Structure formats: structure tokens, C-alpha cells
Amino acid sequence: MASPIISIRNVSKTYTSGFQALDNINLDIHRGEIFALLGPNGAGKTTLINSICGLVNLTAGQVTIDGFDNVRQYRQARRCIGLVPQELTAEAFEKVWNTVSYSRGLFGKRPNPALIEKILKSLSLWDKRNNRMLTLSGGMKRRVLIAKALSHEPPVLFLDEPTAGVDVELRKGMWDVIRGLKQEGVTIILTTHYIEEAEEMADRVGVIRQGRLILVEDKHTLMRSFGKKQLTLELKQALTRLPDTLQDPHIALSADGRQLVYTYDTKDDTADIAALIDRLYRAGVVYTDLHTRQSSLEDIFVDLIKETT
Q: Which residues form a coiled coil (predicted)?
């Protein structure tokens, strides 16, 4: 197997106040993947990203980026990274073209107008190239931040809440941009509050809580292993309570008594729906409709956070 493009070993961060933001994090990021880092507010997501990027001094541990130690070989490691922070920071009176070109120069790269043009066009910013930053919407400013992060052609891109404050239509446009970057071979690490964003795009998911990485898993494996399915039956007549023959920890009666909800693991192929239907028939319970729902990544995330609280 190819060596990881980012390797994080035994990383911890404790501030002078005594607060431990990161607790012995170990993680490999594979070349060319989209990795989503999920966690509640204050879990350590931004601290971990800043630690990898060399913006936070570690208390313990080591981070290498494309083989470069991010402390001993800081310059080489930093050139491998494009970082898009949460905050919309930019020179208000600077033009889009200039601010993106200037970012390239900061990394010692020679001017490359053709590349800057390609980046701006890929982010639908070409017609805004001569606009001053203060005239742009929040969504466009965030696209400029991505353009700046890509201007020095880094193999790794960090997106910290990339669609925060962006409307639904623009958010989906950003998803297309991120997918396009992956197709070009860029490794992408994103944090997000929009868990459907991770479900839509990520190859792997990591969940962090109270500074600890509690789970790292392939998205599809995670959905199969931790997901559940619900079979909901619409009843012809409302029930005041479940009949004794239907008393089961997997069966619940809705508050209005008009629905029965049967919950089972997606990995459990032996779940016998036919047997449940037979039990309903024997109990004299008549249903008029039924439908199934599979748990989303958000459902799984909420369950994981509850389990570790």
C-alpha cells in the first residue's frame, strides 16, 4: 500500500491553562482521498488542522506531510499545504486577481497567469477577477480563499467549514468544485457542521470528541456497520398500547398510536419482516401502508457522540 501523504503520530496539545485540546491522536491520510473530520463544537477539529499545518506548537507527537516533518522541515511541509480557514479574511480593497497571485508569490513560486486563470475559472471567479474583495458575497469570498490556497499548487488542501454561511445552491456548487479537485489528484481534508456534506463527498470519516479520535472508518463501511433501518407501518386504526404479542424492544408505537416503527441493523440480513407481518396479522393489527428508511451519516454521528458522552 502507498505511504500516506499525511502521517500523524501520538499528537497531543495541552495549553498553558491546562486545557487538553488534543489527546494522543494517530491518523494516516491517504493520497488523493477526501477525508471528513466530524465533531461537536470544541471537539478539537480546528486545533488538529492547525497542528498539521504548523500553526499550533504540539505538546507531543509528530506530523509528516508528503514525507516532510512539519517542525524540522517546516518550509517544505508548508509548501505541500493549502489552507482555507473558517474566517473570511482578505484585503477588502484588493482585487481578486491580485490577492490570488500574491498568495502564489508568498510561497516563492514564479508568476503563472495561465494557472491563476485556470483556478479562477474552475471556481467560477473569472468574471470577478477585477472586482475588489469588499464587493463580493460571502460565498464568492470563500471561493477566493480556495483559489488563494490552490495558487501555489499544493497536493493537500484543508477546508475548515468550507460552506459555512453559504446558501444551499452555492453549497452544492462548492461540492462540485471539491470533487473536481479530487479528480485532479488533490488530497482534501474537510471539517464540516453539515454532515450531509460529508455523506455526499467523503471517502473516509473521522469522528473527534473532547480531543480524542474515537473512530476512523471508510464511509460505506461505517454506514453498513453502524447504520440501522426502520420499517414504519401506517395503522388503519390507532392503538392505545402495543398488544402483548408485539411487545419487543425493536418495536415502538408512535405517540398518536397511528404508526408502528420496527428498527433493525442494516448488517443483520436475518431481520424477518415476514415474521413481523405475521405477528401483526395474528394480533389483529391492520396497516394501510409501509415504508423503510435507512439511517443517515448524521444519525450515526449523533449515536456515536451519545455513546461517548
A: none
User: What is the DSSP annotation of 154-181?
Assistant: -SEEEEESTTTT--HHHHHHHHHHHHHH
Cell of 28: 494516516
- Residue 263 CA to residue 277 CA, distance in Å, equals 14
**pLDDT for residue 59:** 95
The pLDDT tens digits for 250-277 are 888 888 989 988 877 655 544 577 788 8
Q: 307: which residues sit within 8 A by CB, 6+ positions away? A: none
pTM listed for this prediction: 0.74
pLDDT at 295: 58
**Which uninterrupted H or E stretch holds 191?**
strand 187-191
User: Cell digits for 133?
Assistant: 474583495
The bridge status of strand 187-191 relative to strand 34-38 is: parallel
Could you say which residues of the chain have pLDDT below 70? 1-2, 88-90, 165-168, 223-228, 265-271, 293-309
- Model pLDDT, residue 154: 94
State the Cα–Cα distance between residues 32 and 13, nearest whole angstrom: 27
- Domains of the chain as residue ranges with CATH: 6-223 (3.40.50.300), 228-307 (3.30.70)
**271 grid coordinates:** 431481520
Query: Can you name the residues that pair with 65 across neighbouring β-strands?
Result: 6, 68
Per DSSP, the residues of 14-37 read: E-TTS-EEEEEEEEEE-TT-EEEE
175: left (phi over 0), alpha (psi -120 to 50) or beta: alpha
